[in-house]
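Can anyone check this?
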Amino acid sequence: MGGVRDRAGRGRGGFTLLELVMAVMIMSIMMLLSFFCFDAVVKSWEAGIEMSESMGQADHVIEQLVSGLRSAYYPDTGQQLDDYGFQFTDGGEGPEARDGISWVKIGRALVGEECGFADSPHRINVSVDDAVRSDTRGLAISAWRVDLQLDEFDPVEDVKPVSLSPRVVGLNCRMLDKDQPMKDDEPNWQDEWKFSNSIPKAVEITLYMELPKDKDEPLEVKRIVEIPMFD
């Protein structure tokens, strides 16, 4: 390294001001690059965690919905009853879809082990609440017993929905057409269901899961569910 000499001509070790400035600048650049690299790694790690959590919740929700739909119930009375039919509310298409579905089932799927009416026919209502501060934000379900209800019972007023997953930001459903399930050798999916006194043969469920802010589109998870009770 450079140095200075005294009057006797002997070398005196040390750094010049220019060398110190250059060293400080190089150190600053290296620290700045290290910070950006560390920040990128942290953001990538956080995004991976968010993706993993969304995928985990999506799998859980889908499995619950599949179990619930396959547990669909319809009484063998020889007639078609609106009280036990599948109901559908169209809420748009794509990631912005807010569809709603409702059906009657038996079993603990979607209602849990401690539900007092799990082993009797009960109606399930599934919808998406996108209100940020709502207690039921995300995919919400409500359930109530079909029979033995008071005349003044109103499920909208008397049943409080429960959030199944706050990460669900969209729900899109399509049903296999009842009169023409196949068209041009392909499944004939419909975005409407007019047969409120019957059950579809199959339902296509698409969930849209919340992702980190730097992602343009929500995570899409799709499943086709065949309903045995249809037959």
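Reply from J.R.: I decoded it. The mean pLDDT is 85.
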